[in-house]
Amino acid sequence: MQVIVLGSGTSHGVPMIGCACAVCTSADPHNKRTRPSIAVRDGEHVYVVDTAPEFRLQSLAVGLNRVDAVFITHTHADHIFGMDDIRRFNDLTGSEIPVYGSKETLRDIKRIFRYIFTPTPLGGGKPRISLHEAAANMEINGMTFRAIQVMHGEMSILGYRFNDFAYVTDVSSIPQESMEQLKGLDTLIMDAVRYRPHATHFGLYQTLDVIESLKPRQAFITHISHRLEHGIVNRLLPSNVKLAYDGMRVDL
Fold it and tell me: Is the CATH code 1.10.3380.30 the one for domain 2-246?
């Protein structure tokens, strides 16, 4: 089982338009961050969490050639605006692709991508997807999945656990019941948008407190803004925690 970080940036991406800060102008490729998404490869099967606006470019960058299911955390633009590129994976797999999310997420997808669900003449192409409400426990192709509720400001969204790996992005607080569901992890990826807390995201030290409480074997930080420089921050982190970066692969 392998996790591929397709994108590790915040909603603006890094570099951010019109910014000349040290991180946005950095030559270090680790500081080039597209919008947040991951792929989980389990044998021949591949599962994607969120379809960022750069999903096509991310897929090309890591050589992604199949998607068996998509899990959506929530429907902010930086997490879903690459949905149309699913149609290429329909061609590659020859099948409809299931998309999982909360009831609210599925409602928003139907509204935002109305054309997908509206009968149209042949030609041009559009994604062939089926919508499914994510459950507390799911099994697909022999892998166990769990949807875990977390808070994004005042908005309830989903994190996902795949066996002993969990991905929790855009989080500003975690209910105690969800903390219990995140125990016993081998690997955790969680966001920290900057050093200081944010109204809808953990700050770096809040994320480190959660990691210390959950005690995964290793953890990676994603959804990173231009406030965090890759090399500097990595030198500050505990030995089992690192910043994620676009294209990073983690074997589980």
Answer: no
Q: What is the mean pLDDT of the chain?
A: 96
Residues 97 and 83: beta-carbon distance below 8 Å: no
Question: Cα 224 from chain centroid?
Answer: 12
For residues 219 and 179, give the distance between their C-alpha atoms in angstroms, rounded to a whole number: 15
Confidence of residue 85 (pLDDT cuts 50, 70, 90): very high
> Which pTM was predicted?
0.96
Domain definitions of the chain by residue range: 2-246
In which order are the strands placed within the sheet that holds 249-251? 129-133, 97-101, 69-71, 45-49, 37-42, 2-7, 249-251
Residues 17-27 have pLDDT tens digits of 999 999 999 99
Lookup: tokens for 17: 């338009």
